[in-house]
Amino acid sequence: QVQLVESGGELVQAGGSLRLSCAASGRTFSSYAMGWFRQAPGKERQFVAAISRSAGGTDYADSVKGRFTISRDNAKNTVYLQMNSLKPEDTAVYYCAAVLLLVWAPPRLESKYNYWGQGTQVTVSS
Hints:
Blueprint: E1 4-7, E2 11-13, E3 18-24, E4 32-39, E5 46-51, E6 58-60, E7 68-73, E8 78-83, E9 92-100, E10 115-116, E11 120-125
Parallel strand pairs: 2-11
Antiparallel strand pairs: 1-3, 3-8, 4-5, 4-9, 5-6, 7-8, 9-10, 9-11
């Protein structure tokens, strides 16, 4: 069992930066690949970024590539999402999720993930 708690979401102006954190419980954090998803009002939840167990592999949605960076610290059981050059269309609830993967294959589908956090709100004003 893995419990995930996101933090770091807030109101920010367009062009600004935020860093989201997702703290995981349990001693098996390093066994899981991690992902970030987001859901804007009235829209389906969408993939944002993912990182492999050892951080050797990463994957990004085209809409955030070059602006967002996913990273993890297995000693701290935490995954991060650094978001730069934020745009109003980045406004959403951001969720982190964990998936047990034996071999890295970028997990973009929600259905692949085993555990989810409760989400943190990011609002980007124009």
